[in-house]
Amino acid sequence: MRIVILGGGFGGVAAARHLERALRRHTGVEITLVSRENFFVLTPLLFEACSGRLELRHCAQPIRAAFQRARFIEATVESVDVDRQVVRAAAPEGHAYSFPYDHVVVALGASTNEGLIPGSSNALTFKTMADALVLRNHLIECFERADAATDAAHRRRCLTVVVIGGGLVGTELVGELTAFADDVLRFYPRIRRDELCFRLFEAGPRILPEIDAKLAATAARVLERRGIGIQASTPVRSIEAGRVRLEDDAVDAATIVLTAGIVPSAVAAAIPVIRDQRGRIAVDGTMRSRSHAQLWALGDCAAIPGPDGRPYPALAQHAIREARHLARNIRAVIDGRVPSVFMFRSHGTMASLGHTRAVARVFGVRLTGFPAWWLRRTYYLFQMPRWDRRLRIVLDWTIALFFRPDITRVDLRVEREQVSW
Ligand SMILES: Cc1cc2nc3c(=O)[nH]c(=O)nc-3n(C[C@H](O)[C@H](O)[C@H](O)COP(=O)(O)OP(=O)(O)OC[C@H]3O[C@@H](n4cnc5c(N)ncnc54)[C@H](O)[C@@H]3O)c2cc1C
C-alpha cells in the first residue's frame, strides 16, 4: 500500500506525521512526501523573519527532521495522473520521478492571486521565505537610495511603501514593516520618520475580515496612530513599475507588495478532478475528492465543506486539524471502515501589528495590545515542532531586545571576477 503526500507545508507535513502514528502497526504501508523545498515554513513567523527580528532560517524546519518513518523526496510535482494513479515530479538537472499510489493526499497550498489586478507582476509578493528575503533586501536598498537621493520626488518614492490587500497577511505585514523602519532609521540620520509613507489599500469595506469588526477597528486605530494611511473600499485598478493606480488617483512607491488573496497552486488546479469555482479541489466532508475516491485534499488548495456548507477558511490552524482527521480517515478506509466528516470550530484568530502590539480573539475573549502580542508569539513558538528551533527563536527575540538591528543586505547574485593571468 503506497500513500503519496504532495506538498510540505502545514497540511502535508502534519498529514505525514499523523499517518506515521495512525499506521504504526500497518507494516506494509509506505508513506512518501514530495515537496519542492526540503523545509517547512511557519508562515506566521515570516513577518519577523522579514524585519530581521528572527534569523530567516529559524522560521523554517527541515522536513526530514520531522519524520520517523515517512520518506521525503525533494522534487517539484508536475502532474497527477488520476486514471493510472501516478504522480510525476521533477528535480533540477533533468531528474524525473514517478510515484504510483493507492492514496494520494494533495496539500500543495496556494499562491498569491496575480490574476485580479492588471500589472500584478510589478508587485512583490509575501508568501515564502524567498519573498521575505527579497522584500527585506529591497527595503534596505530603498533606504540606501533615499539617503543618497538629491531629487525630492525620487527620495519620496523610495520612502513610500504600499501594501495591497488588508486581510490578515497584508495588515500584519504593514504593521511589522513600520516596526522594521523605526528600528533601522537610526542608521539613516538624514531620513526623518515623517518622510516615511505607508499606505494600505483594501477593496472590501474594512481591514481584517478574518477578525470581528470591533478588533479590526482597534487594529486600524493602532496602525493609523503609527502613521499608516489605511483606505478601505479602495480597489486598486492597476499596478505599474513603481506606481499604483486607483479609481481617481495614483501613488508612486518604490515598494509595492501584493497580498490581495490567493489562488490554489497551479499543479493542484490542473489535476483533472472536480473543482469549485475558485479552482480548489472539491472534496466531501471526509476530504475525499468528489470524483476520484483515491485522491484526498486539504489546506489552501481544497474546498472542504464546513457545517454551514461554506468551505473552511485558508488558514494554518485549519490545515493542521484537517491533516489529523484526514490521516484517521485514510486509516479507516485501509481498515475497511467508513471515513468520518471533518468538523472544526476555530478557537480564535490573532493578528500581530508589530511594535509588540496585536489583536486577538481567543475562546470568545478579546485581547489587544501587549497581552495579545505575547499570546500570539508564544502560541506560534510552540507550533514549531522541535525544541532546538524553539530555543533558536527565543534567542533571536532576546538578542533583538538588546542589540541594534542588522541592515546587512544579502546580495544573492553570484558575480565572478574575470581574472586574466
Ligand atoms: C505570511 C503569512 C502569514 C500567515 N499567518 C497565518 C496565521 O497567523 N494563522 C493562520 O492560521 N494562517 C496563517 N497563514 C496561512 C497559512 O500559512 C496557510 O493557510 C497554510 O500554510 C496552508 O497550508 P497548506 O499545507 O495548504 O499550504 P502550504 O503551507 O502553503 O504548503 C504548500 C506546500 O506545497 C509546496 N508546493 C507547492 N507547489 C508544489 C509543487 N508543484 N511541487 C512540490 N511542492 C509544491 C510548497 O512549497 C509548500 O511547501 C499565513 C500565510 C502567510 C503567507
C-alpha end-to-end distance: 61 Å
Q: In what order do the strands lie side by side in the largest sheet?
A: 5-2-1-9-21
| DSSP strand content | 15-25%
The small-molecule ligands in this entry are: flavin-adenine dinucleotide
- Our count of helices gives 11
CA-based gyration radius: 23 Å
Poorly predicted runs of 5 or more residues: none
Describe the sheet with the most strands.
Answer: 5 strands, parallel
**Which overall shape is indicated by the principal axes computed on the Cα atoms?**
globular
Structural class: alpha/beta
State the total count of DSSP E strands.
25
Average of the residue pLDDT scores: 94
Describe this structure in words.
This protein has 421 residues and is an alpha/beta fold. The protein is built from eleven helices and 25 strands. The chain has helices at 10-22, 46-51, 63-66, 129-148, 152-158, 168-184, 213-225, 266-270, 316-334, 369-383, 387-402; strands at 2-6, 30-35, 39-41, 60-62, 71-74, 76-81, 86-91, 95-100, 103-106, 110-112, 124-125, 160-164, 197-201, 228-231, 238-240, 243-245, 250-252, 255-258, 262-264, 281-282, 295-297, 302-303, 348-354, 357-362, 365-368. Strand 6 (76-81) and strand 7 form a beta hairpin. Helix 1 (10-22) packs parallel to helix 9 (316-334) and helix 4 (129-148) packs antiparallel against helix 5. The longest helix has 20 residues, at 129-148. It binds flavin-adenine dinucleotide. Flavin-adenine dinucleotide is lined by residues 7-12, 34-37, 43-44, 46, 76-77, 107-109, 126-127, 169, 265, 267, 299-301, 314-317, 319.
